[in-house]
Amino acid sequence: MTVPAWAESPVEAAALDAATAMLERLGRVDPCSWGGGAPPPRNAPPAAALSAAGTQAAWHAALDGMVPEDFARRVPGAPPRRVLIIASANVFTAPLEWMLHLAARGVDVRVKPARGQLEAVQAMAVAVDPAGRRLQVTPWTGGEDLEAEARAMRDVDAVIAFGTAEGLAAIGARVPAGVRYLPFGPRFGVAMLGAPSTAHAEAVAWDHVLHDGRGCMSPAAVFVEDADPTSFRDALADLAARVPAGPLTPAEARARRERVASARVHGRALEAGDGVVLVLPATRFSPVALPRTLVLHPVTGPAEVGAALAAHAPRLGTVAASEGYATLARTFGGTVRVCDPGAMQRPPTCRLHDGVDVLGALWRP
Amino acid sequence: MRERIAEAVARGDALAPVERDALALELHAWQRRHAPVVAALSDAVPPAAVTDIPAVPVGLFKEADVGSVPAHEAGVVFRTSGTTGETRGVVRLRDTALYDLGARDHVRRCLPDLPTQVVSLCSHAPDSSLGHMVADFGGGAHMALFDTARGVSPEAWAFLAEVRGPIFLATTAFALDALLAMDGAASLDARSVVMVTGGFKGRAVRLDAPGLYRALPARLGSPRVVGEYGMTELSSQLWTAPVACGAVPGPFLAPPWMAVHAVDPATGAPVDGEGLLTFTDLCNVDTAVRIETLDLGTVEHAGDRAWVHLRGRMQGGEARGCSLAAEAFVGTRA
Question: Considering A284, A319, B159, B300, which has the largest number of Cβ atoms within 10 A of its Cβ?
């Protein structure tokens, strides 16, 4: 199953009206308006860490393909009264999908923004629910202000949380008894392209540039049967000119220098605007994506891809596959979303999230 | 090359920084010819200053043979620590002569009255560089109260309570914490020295460093306490000045044959304030003369001496996914 059971359910008029209005208002949001343009909010949030063009691109990619009907299909059972969403910071648009699904269906939503993303989430909340009746933004310092967390969890039916395995386990231990807990841990994405065309290279470079390579839908690596990295370098350099990278955190920058060093030892490193294309043997595959660091693994065929990914398969979330690799991609399990190159960052909104039917789990029979 | 470096190390404090740096550049040029990893990281133009020498990130030791010693020519192999199944970094040395020469020289510089009776709460696995150093301080004889499989020996306190004469108690911070968690006490006098090494932050637990040091007088008596900073990828160590039991050791003194620089994590360029620590260690003859760590700190120069103030380990950049920032959930509480 790749879509939830309610994907073909009838559309409910009230929810459709609500979702339509919400998407219209979201379409008018200027994502660079929050934070007043400059300086960025304290703690250098990832949303602010994108360039202005990067923020615009990521915002429009998130809205692209969202259709009101997806947020209005009837889900069997009784809806929850109130749901708390605990967001993470890699992808500032991540909570939007569930805010829409829930708010359009009349569920009260409480959102804890990730560190530094208060203004972004507030802007989304205002667009989704201008009157502030359904949607409440409740910031607190994650892992520290446990009283605020307990207050936020006190009268909710469910908690949806995004985070590291350790963070999610810690939160899970504090979720009150009787409250449904849906944790979503780290995932990674890859592209499997066989002999890539220039169009493939451009599409995957775009997948990588959105959100500056952060997030589980960014390709951490690209498996190719043609070792020539030129088209990827050109594509990444071209995008750098149009959508410059935001600042890297010191840890990201340091990790990128180490990955470049590894490529100089084991393969090749090519500068590509403000990014870099690395060619490394598939045995050097790492699920850790780094900003503007497109890692190519030349392979002889699907078997080598499978071997490289075997140890990490449980965390594989998104695969952009060209013809010949889609079948392989689906062998990694039911939670992998397989898509065309260029569509990695635009999942269908009527979907299973990491294999979970979120609304199906929240609606009581 | 090896002989000239041994001679320089043996000169100790008489080795001027300018001579050290010239030797480092020479050693790098040699390594560039003989160590493929160093060659791959080197630019076409040879470095003009120590800070231009490409610093090998410590992570590369886990994925490549850094150095010039083929496996079949290695006299000793040290490995970085790691959990089961985790890839461990490998350091191959032709022998430990230079390693031992430097370790002995610098510990005596920092601890002139180093007790020769060595008691260890460190790993003594054959591939542990720390275990090798500690054992060497005891002239090859030491009392091991730690086992990598079982941790601190249940007999540790009984031994420490009955030991006679001054001892050099070598321990990692986590082993010391485990020792203090066990019942027992000892009355070491001020001739004894407790060496604490290793970080205070593990994968899931962060130790309270001041609290750990404060607890020592009540449990161990009045030994002096000294901090040691070292790692498998470095052939030399840094030591703090000894402090009274209960106090927290201060900055670490680098040996005369080592240059230390704080660099910008983003660029690798030297910075004046806090940065990633890089070490140019002449004793790293068999690997790479300059390495870049994941440790943050500042470097204070007093005359020809470099004191390093450690600020902790650089975090982040490892786990990515939808949820990097959920690190903030556990962040400083880990």
Answer: A319
